[in-house]
Design brief:
By secondary structure, this protein is α/β, with parallel strands linked by helices. The protein has one domain: Rossmann fold (3-Layer(aba) Sandwich), CATH 3.40.50.720. Helix content is 42%, strand content 14%. It contains 8 helices and 7 strands; from the N terminus they run βαβαβαβαβαβαααβ. It has a 7-stranded parallel sheet with strand order 3-2-1-4-5-6-7, with helices on both faces. Strand 4, helix 4 and strand 5 form a beta-alpha-beta unit. Helix 1 packs across helix 8, helix 3 packs parallel to helix 4 and helix 4 packs parallel to helix 5. The relative contact order is 0.14. The model has no long low-confidence stretch (mean pLDDT 95).
């Protein structure tokens, strides 16, 4: 019997790559995103490979999330895997120059949205039991702060701790919980963060050999298809080109 995966934020980046990778592996897919037309195109492309259901919704809309996941039909009502991928970063300015609206949107998406989807699907995952999984997309920003990261770093620290605490609560259910934390990754994510600044995007990735969405998709499939008695708690991935810098020292501050 085919397994079923729910992937949020499936219209670009990691989510889109994961949709293709899991379809190739024969998984049924429930794909969510805010861009209905793009979801329709993705479903048309993947349907010859597997069964696909799309849900056009914003994970920040609690009522819409709850209603959508309460109405899943066969074969999509039995969920084996939730990939909480929907998330974003906005702005690169220091905290004192940041827009409060950007902070709130990151909190609403990266924390509120992720927890809302998780809460809605926990009963289905627990019903599936042994071998089912939740994989939350975190970030190295949870553990390695940087200038301009402020609230984004905070939201990803939440994702990591929520993942670990959720695993404690799900002990004995057979449901696995993982936090996958990528480093420098090349995707539409950076264009969103910089307000569509293509030059900033090009400068960031030039010569960096950054992580690609397909790299993360392959890792997600590997985690999901591990034997049921194994759990990846947290997995941090960086490109070889990325490492740590010396601590900043502001003299005579």
């Amino acid at each position: 019997m085919n397994k079923t995966a729910v992937i949020t934020g499936a219209t670009s980046g990691f989510g889109l790559a994961a949709a293709h990778r899991f379809a190739d592996a024969g998984w049924n897919l429930v794909l969510t995103g805010r861009r209905e037309e793009r979801l329709a195109d993705i479903a048309a492309e993947l349907t010859p490979k597997t069964a696909v259901m799309t849900l056009s919704l914003d994970v920040c809309d609690t009522a819409a999330v709850q209603q959508a996941f309460a109405k899943l039909d066969t074969p999509f009502d039995s969920i084996d895997l939730l990939i909480n991928n929907a998330g974003l970063a906005l702005g690169t300015e220091p905290a004192q120059h940041s827009e409060l609206s950007d902070w709130h949107r990151m909190i609403d998406t990266n924390i509120k949205g992720l927890t809302t989807v998780t809460h809605a699907l926990l009963p289905k995952l627990i019903a599936r039991g042994k071998g089912s999984s939740i994989i939350n997309i975190g970030s190295i920003a949870a553990n390695w702060p940087y200038p301009g990261g402020n609230v984004y770093c905070g939201t990803k620290a939440f994702v990591e701790q929520f993942s670990l605490a959720l695993r404690c609560d799900l002990g004995g259910t057979g449901v696995r919980v993982s936090c996958l934390a990528p480093g420098l990754s090349e995707s539409e994510f950076t264009l969103v963060r910089t307000g569509g600044d293509q030059q900033a995007y090009d400068n960031l990735y030039k010569g960096a050999a950054a992580i690609q969405p397909d790299d993360i998709a392959d890792t997600l499939l590997w985690i999901a298809q591990l034997p049921a008695h194994l759990n990846i708690n947290t997995l941090e991935i960086m490109p070889v080109s990325q490492s740590w810098s010396p601590f900043s020292i502001n003299r005579d501050a």
